[in-house]
Amino acid sequence: MARFSQDMLCTIDRGGRFLQVNEASNLILGYEGRELRGRHFSEFVHPEDLPRTAEIIAEVMGGSTHNNLEIRLVHRDGQVRYSLWGGAWSAEDGAIYAIGRDVTELKISRIKLEESEQRYRALFEHNQDVLFLENSKGVVIDVNHSFCEAFGIPRQEAINTRVPSFLPATMAAQSEEGFQEAMAGRTMRRTLEFSSERGKEKVFDVLKSPLTVNGEIIGVQTIAKDITANVRSYETIKRQASKLSTIFESITDAFLMVKPDWVLTYLNCEAEKLLSLDRETALGKSLLEIFPEETGGEFHAQYLYALETGRAVDFTASLRRLNLWLRVKAFPSTEGLSVYFEDVTEQEKAKLELEKLALVASKTSNGVMITDNEGRIEWVNDGFTKLTGFALQEAVGVKPDFLMRGRNTDENTIGRIYGRLGQPDPYREEILICDRWGGEKWLELDVTPVLDGTGVAVRQIRIQTDITERKKAQKELEKLSLVASNTTNGVIITDRERVIEWVNDGFTKLYGYNLEEAVGKGPSELLHSPRTDKGIFSAQEARLLGGEPISFEVLNLRKGGEEVWVSVEISPVFDHTGELSRYVEVQTDITALKRSEQEQARLAGDLYRQNSDLQQFTYMVSHNLRAPVANALGLAELLAGTGRDSDRFAPTLSFLGQSVRKLDEVLRDMNTVLSIRDRRGNLEREDVDIREVIVQAQSTLKGEMALAGGRVDIGVAEGLRVKASKAYLFSIFYNLLSNAIKYRSGERTLSVQIKCLQSADRGTIIHFSDNGSGFDMKKAKGSAFRLYQRFHTAKEGRGMGLYLVKAHVEAMGGQVKVTSRVGIGTRFLVFFPPN
Asked: Which helix (H) or strand (E) is 191 found in, with range?
């Protein structure tokens, strides 16, 4: 029980040192029990509690028993922890048996509760509003100072009495009703009038609400706010407003009043109608709240000026929400603004139309003409003359179609324009015209009707924009699209930012994306895969931006995820000003060609390797096989003529055996070379633990390494794997370790370092180095891995080890490199591509 108790159980000797402590000490003090044994209790008691604690421990040793002793302890992390202790002296054991419990959270909660109670009491006692509390039986249990002042009753008299006892009968009934409502769980709010003992009439805004503890209503809280001054002020204002209302309602202009804080206090019927307001909902609201869009506008600025300067203002401005123009007169006073206004919308619209017309006529570079309700020209600007060649004197009184009709002008377009004469809505048309010099031009017409006061169109303003070049570009694009839509290649048209505007059916067949899916995206965003070489385009991008066409081959990705090789040709397109406007990109599927090239490259590689193997084989036959065969043949002929009793028979037979064994070695080497060649391409691979294979190779050569006195440091993380043949990987490490032992330096202890780095994109790199005798790289001339190549003739060997290392690495798709210095050592780097 002591082991699993959350309380700290301990024994303390006469000297105040801990004898036994359970593991709860870790929770309370942050120390394990074994750390406390033998240490004095004073090390863990708060300095301020130490004298009292020492005194009580002395009393306990004297036979007294103490319980619920609160002591502050110091935790291992320096924090103060509150605890309750109890203990008793055992004379038999000569020790105090004590038990302590951590009450820090409880102590903090109590402190917070006390602070909260003090804050609540201060708010309750000093609140300007009348506050009192009743229990569930309606008996007053607490009142504040404002209560005593309001009712003229001392606190002692109010407590333990019922509220109706110090209220008038009518008010007492309403209070009792509110009490019952609150006890039923509902909040009650109402206004009550009260006559004090001094004869003063007071009005209170009373709020009664239930007091709830753990879901149970235990009483009622009442808050009564004295609103007498507000009520009396309101009554006075109401009487004055009634008198003024009669006056203001008789005014024919719209009229309203606002306070300095923009609150609307009055508006007459005319203002209510003109501003589309409801008097009942609008009064009491801020004018800026009713018309928030006018904040900082003309109305706001003018009213603010009147309030700040005390001067009347007279101005005309547009009320945007209602589309009204108002003539406003505002008169400031200490109570705010008195505002008179009238609707002048029609006058202002006519004025604005004239201003717009003057502005258009004088400033625009486009052609402008004004026609009457029958379509005859009344006026043209200089832009019209520059555009068409016709001057004002030639155009006035003539209909535009008679003036500018050409051989190719569309009669249907002319008919639509005449058909819209007299209609109030603006519209837009495109029309081909003939200018004064016989040249054809495309014009875009923006037609705006001018309306009279009744809403009838009396004339038209026609703004002409020359779109001839745009039309030509559209024609060119249509031709280009027609050509592109009938080719089997994928065609993309992009804007100057390389965003797709159009693709043809060939593109859809090539990639699977239709026009809607492609438009708005960049070709690279849509088509590139993680394996796409983005540098191919980047290398030529500057030329393309400079206006030159470019071409390249790139690996892209179809919608379905399949890779496709394409030949890409991108040509820039320029507008009539010579500015680059878009690009045309033609893509041809060359996947089959690329696969053919890759297959040819693979076959060439196989052929190169086979030639290399053939050279090695020829070398072995011509150099290593020929000598033992010739020796064996010569010795066999010699034995044929030598008797068994001859002194030469036994030596000759021994030499013959050596030649045959040498021949067997060469044949086994040939078999090894041929087996590696035959297994290339269909070599079975698996996930091989690199460190495990190194350890296996090291164990095989454990005796030789011990005799050499060498050391192998393996800096390869456990679990690091590579896709490889386990047997080949073993052979690589075995041969490298065997060579390190065989060709070690006699001047120092052999040290071999093996490290490995691996990444998803770069693959696996194995670093193998030794501090052996090394060899001369210049003399080796790249033949370090050649079959039967030897650099240390004084050492026994056949020159087969490094050849096997290279052959096995390359059979698994890897590469091996070597660097060496005489007297320093040799380093091998083995590379395996990513899985």
From this structure: strand 188-195
Q: Say if residue 670's pLDDT is above 60.
A: no
Which of 488 and 527 is assigned the larger pLDDT? 527
Q: Give the domain 596-676 fold.
A: Helix Hairpins (1.10.287)
Tens of pLDDT along 347-366?
Answer: 777 667 656 665 655 567 78
% of the chain at pLDDT higher than 90: 20
Give the closest residue to 263 by CA, choosing from 283, 244, 277, 292: 283
Reduced to 3 states (helix: H, G, I; strand: E, B; else coil), residue 371 is: strand
Give the CATH fold of the 472-582 domain. Answer: Beta-Lactamase (3.30.450)
* Alpha helices by DSSP H, 255-312: 269-274, 279-282, 287-290, 298-309
Percent of the chain scored above 70 by pLDDT? 83
Among 582, 567, 337, CA closest to 480: 582
Please count the CA atoms within 13 angstroms of the CA of 19 that sit on its side-chain side: 12
Spatial separation of the C-alpha atoms in residues 50 and 58, rounded to whole Å: 12
**3-state SS track over 152-179:** CCCHHHHCCCEHHHHCCHHHHHHHHHHH
The answer to whether 584 and 592 have CB atoms below 8 angstroms apart is no
| C-alpha to C-alpha distances, 418 to 103, 396, 399, 415, nearest whole angstrom | 95, 18, 10, 5
CATH 3.30.450.20 fits 127-226, yes or no: yes
Contact 620, 787 (CB under 8 A): yes
**Cβ neighbours, 10 Å, residue 222:** 24
Q: What is the mean pLDDT of the chain?
A: 82
Q: At 770, is the secondary structure helix, strand, or coil? A: strand
Give CA–CA dist 550/547, Å, rounded. Answer: 9
Beta bridge partners of 429: 445
The predicted model gives 9-21 an average pLDDT of: 91
Instruction: Give the CATH architecture of domain 348-466.
Output: 2-Layer Sandwich (3.30)
Closest C-alpha among 220, 210, 196, 212 to residue 140:
220
Rg (CA), the chain: 53
Residue of higher predicted confidence among 565 and 233: 565
Phi-psi region of 477 (alpha: psi -120 to 50; beta: other; left: phi over 0): alpha
Say whether pLDDT at 722 is over 50: yes
Q: At residue 694, does pLDDT exceed 50?
A: yes
Residues β-bridged to residue 263: 286
**Contact criterion met (CB below 8 Å) for 756 and 715:** yes
Strands 324-333 and 711-715: unpaired
Other Cβ atoms closer than 10 A to 574: 11
The residue among 121 and 26 whose pLDDT is bigger is: 26
Structure-token pair, residue 219 = 């009483």
Check residue 659 and give its pLDDT: 61
Superfamily of domain 8-109: PAS domain (3.30.450.20)
The reply to whether 8-109 and 348-466 are identical in fold is yes
The pairing of beta strand 550-557 with beta strand 563-574: antiparallel
Nearest to 711 by CA among 767, 752, 745, 769: 752
Angle at 258 between CA 255 and CA 260, to 5 degrees: 150
End-to-end Cα distance, the chain: 58
Domain range summary for the chain, segments of one domain joined by +: 8-109, 127-226, 254-343, 348-466, 472-582, 596-676, 683-832
Q: Is 334 exposed, middle or buried (0-12, 13-18, 19+ CB in 10 A)?
A: exposed
| Superfamily classification of domain 683-832 | Histidine kinase-like ATPase, C-terminal domain (3.30.565.10)
Mean pLDDT computed over 127-147: 85
CATH topology of domain 254-343: Beta-Lactamase (3.30.450)
Q: What is the side-by-side strand order in the sheet with 264-267?
A: 264-267, 254-258, 336-343, 324-333, 313-319
| Burial of 680 per CB tally in 10 Å (0-12, 13-18, 19+) | middle
